[in-house]
Amino acid sequence: MDKKFEGIYSNGKKLFTQNLVCGAKVYGEKLVVDAGTEYREWNPFKSKYCAAIANGLKTNIFGKDSVVLYLGSAEGTTVSHVSDLVGSKGVIFCVDLSEIAMQKLNALAKIRENIFPILSDAQKIDNYSEYLDEGVDVLFQDVSQRNQTEIFLKNAVFLKKGSFGALSLKTKSISQSKGKKQILEEETAKLEDVFTIEQIVNLEPFEKEHYLILVRKK
């Protein structure tokens, strides 16, 4: 395995994370042992953050021991790989509105103890602000709502100054009539008062009409 980023590896074709819970799969992914270490294959068609890495993301925002606020965690596919990356001393606060998804995430949290599920609307930050009073090192969002940029900005209050965030932007959720590049420009402009835009990655062919916007809080 070749190291692509800290905690993220490649065999030349596919991406992997070192498995925090040896022998345990999360979504049917392939497990590979190399030089005595177990790795989990990371599928870019099932993870927008992985898709961004496959398409040239220059910075991995999820470091070892990081405290993460993850908005739109769903059933935990990408979250499980973030769990590998932040390690046993890291923490991932996972916010999602779906009770069905939260059931699966709760089951995952019993195996991966660095995952903390929160059933809540990500627009209602008072519902979980008590857990984040010391701030977070990383803010990641994957939410399919028209006001997704505004939600990201609202939650930016928890992100420490100088720290990284990433917004998975779903342009079709914002407008069906505007072109994706116009939407990207308009939504990126909204971020610039609070964030420095570090990189924008088109997620095609893994996800249509999607971009990952990498930012750093001013």
How would you characterize the overall build of this protein?
The chain has 218 residues and is α/β, with parallel strands linked by helices. The chain has one domain: 3-Layer(aba) Sandwich (Rossmann fold), CATH 3.40.50.150. Helices cover 25% and strands 33% of the residues. It is built from six helices and twelve strands. The strands form two sheets. A seven-stranded mixed sheet has the order 8-7-6-9-10-12-11, sandwiched between helices. It has a five-stranded antiparallel sheet with strand order 1-2-3-5-4, with helices on one face. The relative contact order is 0.14.
Low-pLDDT segments: none
Q: Identify the CATH architecture.
A: 3-Layer(aba) Sandwich
Helix proportion range: 10-25%
Please identify which CATH superfamily we are dealing with. Answer: Vaccinia Virus protein VP39
Q: Could you give the order of the helices and strands?
A: EEEEEHEHEHEEHEHHEE
Count the E strands: 12
- β-strand percent reads 25-35%
By CATH reckoning, the class would read Alpha Beta
Rg: 16 Å
Average predicted confidence as pLDDT: 95
Neighbour order of strands in the largest sheet: 8-7-6-9-10-12-11
CATH fold topology: Rossmann fold
Count of helical stretches: 6
Largest sheet: 7 strands, mixed
Class based on secondary structure composition and strand pairing:
alpha/beta
How many distinct domains? 1
Overall outline: globular
Give the N-to-C terminal Cα separation.
Answer: 36 Å
Throw out a few tags for this protein:
218 residues, alpha/beta, Rossmann fold, 7-stranded mixed beta sheet, 5-stranded antiparallel beta sheet, 33% strand
